[in-house]
Amino acid sequence: MPEKKKRRKLDEDKCLNQDNMADETNPSPENEKSLSPESKEQKSVTPDKSYNEKIKQITSKWMEGSGAEAEIVISSRIRLARNISGFPFPPLASDEHREKVLSMGKKVLQEQKDYLSDMNLLDISSFSAVYRQVLVEKHLISPLQARESLSSALILRDDEVVSIMINEEDHFRIQCLLPGLQLKKGWEEASRYDDYLEQVVDYAFHQDLGYLTACPTNVGTGLRASVMLYLPALVITGQINHILSAISQVGLAVRGIYGEGTEMVGGLCQVSNQITLGQSEEEIWQNLYSVIRHLINQERKARQHLLNKERDKLADRAGRAYGILKHARLLNAEETMQFISDVRLGVDLGLLGDVPVGTLNELLVLTQPGCLQYLKGKSLSPYERDLERATRVKQYLP
Amino acid sequence: MLCQKCNKKNASVHLTKIINGNKSEIYICEDCARENGELDFPLEGKFPLYQFFSGMMGMNAPENAEAVMPVEEAVMQCAACGLTYAQFGQIGRFGCDRCYESFDRNILPLFRRLHGNQKHMGKIPTRAGTHLKLKKKIDHLKLELQKKVMDEDFEAAAELRDQIHDLEKQLAEGGAGDA
Ligand SMILES: [Zn+2]
Ligand SMILES: [Zn+2]
Questions:
Q1: How far is it, in rounded angstroms, from Cα A167 to Cα A154?
Q2: Domain coordinates of chain B in residue numbers?
Q3: Interval A275-307: pLDDT, tens
Q4: N or C: which terminus of chain B has fewer CB atoms within 10 Å of its end residue's CB?
């Protein structure tokens, strides 16, 4: 379990301004600069945890590189937004109401303990800014929830596959996050936990509009299904933009693996549904599933094409990337992602030695700013992060 | 109105800030808004959909928001949480589940544009679902009742009336019956 550490409540104004604290000249994922301004005050995040213990905390089931189509699909996620009837939604809720929602979450754990004995409630507000950032980078909480300090909590299953965010934009957000392409299982799991919750909580539900949510883009099923993909060959062959724009025509959204607005680097991207109202849950994830299947086929064809036509170039690209990852002294976030992607393609196509897919997935997370600072046990400037990133990559890559 | 920040230029941006449930209204000029990052972050965190919603709701960009939204719409308010329709347009978020009824007529077109639909076709919660099934059954029996009355089959009608009465009682008690 993550260490608990007392820290003062985040100042709302600072929260608002933190995104303006751009301190980097090169474009990089937004998380690179989104650490709370107070992080400097936290001289040591975890003085007493060993490197191995921290690595264990950071790595998670979804990164392990298992599940169907694991060489192309990194993970599948189902998220259900649920709210309590008659309570103001979190964006407008008073401190008192937020506290009541949290109590409701505790009540669920208590009353459904027969089913939820392998879950624990984590008090997000007790975590350091750096550790919250780690949870964001692990895709267990959202950036919004990382900024919220009051009565903000996470119910997390021991294997981290199922989690329930409390007081994010909605009162509850149930998430099931699995490695590989497993949308069906993700939906079944999330729905099961939804049923446990509903036994205790009076849901805000409308006969015609379904589950009522804070944002009108989630109303209806409250379901967001998203798949994290790795499509390097489509990028190298220049087909990616064409394909992705076609996807956005069928009601799906595409973005980088670290949130809205982040660039798609090395063919790493997330595809998710946008429509939540007027389709059943099965229709929603099945639509996504069939598009993902199509993408997998296209990517396979592109890989075969590259293998036939540009084998040496690909092997060279992978080898160079590996060499840089192994020997560079400074690595920025974006190039690291690109090199990891290049190495991975080489490994997948049998052009480079044997690096486990899981290790490469884990590296994508380990080299994020929050994880780097957590591992180091102190806050780091962008330059120091680049130094640290190169050190960690060298150490972690077999 | 002058900008509440610099007191020099005309206030053209109307902001509603909601922090921890406290609402405050600010009128500032576009320069000050940009300087404070307010145009990008009207509420806590990012709201990339902000402009998008305003457009969809038939409202316009912040610089002349007040000019175009009809006043009677802008002041429509949710009785439960106090959110006005204008505020909803600004933050793109509802204040509570009752907002959906409060802004009923106005938001259905928004749902059609966002989702291409306005009717939920998915999961129905078990407990709330029992309630809904009960309601549907009552509606069905009421139709039957009308038919019987029209056919002047008063004996059957009386029976149906008793049945409806029982179900309505169940509904009032929380709908835990075997609907
Ligand atoms: Zn001004
Ligand atoms: Zn309301």
A1: 9
A2: 1-45, 49-115, 126-173
A3: 999 999 999 999 999 999 999 999 999 999 999
A4: N
Instruction: Map tokens 């149930």 to a residue.
Output: A174
CA distance A98 to A87: 9
Residues 90-149 (B) with a CB less than 8 A from some CB of A: 91-98, 100, 107, 110-111, 114-128, 132, 135
DSSP-based three-state secondary structure for A84: strand
Facing B122 at nearest CB: one of A15, A85, A281: A281
* Three-state SS at B19: strand
| Structure letter (DSSP) for residue A109 | H
- Give CA separation, A279 vs A58, A113, A153, A184, A202, in Å: 36, 33, 30, 16, 23
Amino acid at B25: E
Q: Which DSSP symbol is given to A179?
A: E
- Find, in chain B, the residue whose alpha carbon is nearest to that of A204: B97
Fold of B1-45: Wheat Germ Agglutinin (Isolectin 2); domain 1 (3.30.60)
pTM: 0.76
The protein residues having their C-beta less than 5 angstroms from ligand 1 (an ion) are: B 3, 5-6, 9, 29, 32
Q: Is the pLDDT of residue B123 over 60?
A: yes
**Band of pLDDT at residue A359, cut at 50, 70 and 90:** very high
Q: What angle do CA A207, A211, A212 make, to 5 degrees?
A: 100
Given a cut of 70, is residue B70 above it in pLDDT? no
